[in-house]
């Protein structure tokens, strides 16, 4: 059974829905500065095309950091709607629920899962890892594949533009309406790449170390809007901004979705097993179920 609290889910969604009804979501996240590829790979994001045998992906046979334990990493703080109350161990929030579902698929109980806190930049750097896999809204890109492994994608990402009511871009319906906007995004993210590659405004984008800094800049009127993944956009406009609105979602580049994948050490013996688990969760509709539980709302308009 997935370690989620439906009561907590309903309470969380009720709060944000009151603040921003009829807006919607999908998803995106950070990438390293050298990474200019905001596109995605297919659902099968592991490098091996041959699925491992079932008996190769069990707690008794998998080469984990700690025998008999699946160690999962994420950043601190861990934000909603991906995690709830900054506590990945409670199974609440999209990525926490996905992580426990992967663990269950691999034969681990909730008690056999251990969480560690690892900064995003350390996760995507080359070198040994103190975790078996990481979930932290990490977009799958070829540039990152040079340093780490990825599982199959567990979430298809959509970027969105948010602003405040009455701003110069409130009511924009197309990318052309954003041509003169001063937009901002977190440094090293695919959101920033979306500004430079898709929107291509005349003004240089503002860069922030954190999304919280971007929100404050928007409140101060220093920028016209922020580009983030759609679930984060929903959270920002519903919770962090008193008068926040989602302008719209950006079209998928080349019709291919950007994806979040679990991050593993380069050439990890666990990559194929984790990918197989994610593929099964997608095929069985479990990922959709988790998405409905923690993310789904009616759609934001697409900016043409």
UniProtKB/TrEMBL annotation:
PROSITE patterns: PROKAR_LIPOPROTEIN. InterPro entries: Iontro_rcpt_C (IPR001320), Solute-binding_3/MltF_N (IPR001638). Residues 69-297 form the Ionotropic glutamate receptor C-terminal domain. Residues 39-56 have a biased composition (Low complexity). Residues 29-62 are annotated as: Disordered. The keyword Transcription does not apply. Keywords: Signal. Residues 1-29 form the signal peptide. Residues 69-298 form the Solute-binding protein family 3/N-terminal domain. It holds the Pfam family SBP_bac_3. It comes from the Bacteria. CDD domains: PBP2_peptides_like. This is ABC transporter substrate-binding protein.
